[in-house]
């Protein structure tokens, strides 16, 4: 899951550099949610 977040982050950076603001914003939003889900699942797995 963290790999997907990094992939979407890289896509957002490339899209932002090429001027595709909509794609960059959407990719960044997906990456942010994936990182949040990863952190929650990591905390839950450490507690259980």
UniProtKB/TrEMBL annotation:
Pfam family, one: DUF1328
Chief localisation class: membrane
Transmembrane segments: 29-47
Compartments where located: Cell membrane
This protein's GO CC annotations: plasma membrane
Keyword annotations: Cell membrane, Membrane, Transmembrane, Transmembrane helix
Domain of life assignment: Archaea
InterPro entries in alphabetical order: DUF1328
Record membrane topology: Single-pass membrane protein
Entry similarity comment: Belongs to the UPF0391 family.
Protein name: UPF0391 membrane protein C493_02271
